[in-house]
């Protein structure tokens, strides 16, 4: 039988009832490596982009902050979008999303 392998070429997911530090830990990334963008997307008021590639984090801040002290609206959660290029850039950076946490 042939051994199968899987390559993820686009990934989007939403983490509900979590704050940004938990999402960053899940993705093994640092919030300091994200830059805020001028506007949100998909109904979220805020959006930040990973400086090392095409990973976008969308959220709605409840305290008007976009830095490490941001308080995320728990009902809408944090939406993560990793584009095709972002998947490759993420894997090259040797990052791994912890699915068993």
Count of separate DSSP helical elements:
2
What does the main sheet amount to? 5 strands, antiparallel
What structural category characterises the helix and strand content?
alpha+beta
Q: Identify the overall geometry.
A: elongated
Please, could you describe this protein's structure?
- The mean pLDDT is 90.
- The chain has 101 residues and is of the alpha+beta class.
- Helices cover 17% and strands 23% of the residues.
- A five-stranded antiparallel sheet has the order 1-5-4-3-2.
- The chain has helices spanning 20-27, 84-92, and strands spanning 11-15, 34-36, 46-50, 55-59, 78-82.
Short description:
The protein has a five-stranded antiparallel beta sheet.
Element layout with pairings:
Blueprint lengths: L10 E5 L4 H8 L6 E3 L9 E5 L4 E5 L18 E5 L1 H9 L9
Antiparallel strand pairs: 1-5, 2-3, 3-4, 4-5
Features:
single chain; 101 residues; alpha+beta; elongated
């Amino acid at each position: 039988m042939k051994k199968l392998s899987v390559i993820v070429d686009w990934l989007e997911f939403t983490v509900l009832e979590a704050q940004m530090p938990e999402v960053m830990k899940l993705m093994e990334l640092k919030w300091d490596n994200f830059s805020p963008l001028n506007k949100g997307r998909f109904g979220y008021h805020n959006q930040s982009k990973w400086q090392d590639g095409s990973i976008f984090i969308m959220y709605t801040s409840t305290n008007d902050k976009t830095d490490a002290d941001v308080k995320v609206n728990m009902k809408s959660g944090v939406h993560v979008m990793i584009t095709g290029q972002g998947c490759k850039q993420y894997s090259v950076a040797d990052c791994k999303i912890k699915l068993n946490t």
